[in-house]
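User: What would this chain look like folded?
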Amino acid sequence: MSDTTAGLRHVEHVEHVMGSVFSFDIRDEPTPAVRRALDEAVHHLHRIDEVFSTYRPDSCISRLGRGEIRREDCPPEVLEVLFLCAHAARVSDGWFSILPEGTLDPSGLVKGWAVEAASRILHEAGAHDTCVNGGGDIQVRGRAAPAAPWRIGVAHPLRPGELVTVVTAHDDLAVATSGTAERGAHIVDPFTGRPATAFASLTLVGPRLTLTDTYATAAFARGDGAREWLEGLHGYEALAVTPDGGEWRTTGFHRYGS
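Assistant: Here's the prediction, encoded as structure tokens.
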């Protein structure tokens, strides 16, 4: 954790957890309450990893998937996540699934949910100008500086080192990108079991990261029907890049990015 003085004193912290890198950028005065909240947010991420990691055979979600325990035996956050997953599955007509390859795996929702929870912990402690980034999925609140909004660069999936757009957050905003650049074709079509390949990347902006990240995953899996579905989602806008380098944006995306 470090304080940085550059016209505005703030706190930055990087945490390796959940198989990813989480970064915190807090532009508020680093009061004792804010520092305690940052510690709490980091602790919360590690607890989420312990409960939900599908790579840990002793995690609650792994044991639940193997039928060793029941939902009632799990901590409350498991029931919350499963409820949110069921909601996302209904809204997306099944294109979001917690059984993408036949085993219980809510990872497509958990990371965004974890980032949003960490952001909320900071906000409730009085940190109102923050950016929490979990492996490229981002929740911002407030402003980067008194007269400056947060500006979030979105990497081009086919042109290393280039940006496909810069998202400007004039208010609290979530930005989630699903794509193949970092992890290959890892998103599965839940109806065929095969990798989804219609997009090189799909970036979604929305109010809160839990559903923004989840809907980005569902849209990526949906492929050809994604644009029409996203146009019907109130409060969300998208930018997609296709494998041949083509691009499209939903009607209102211009309010956030170029």
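Helices lie at 32-52, 60-65, 76-91, 107-124, 209-222, 226-231. If you want, I can go into more detail on any region.
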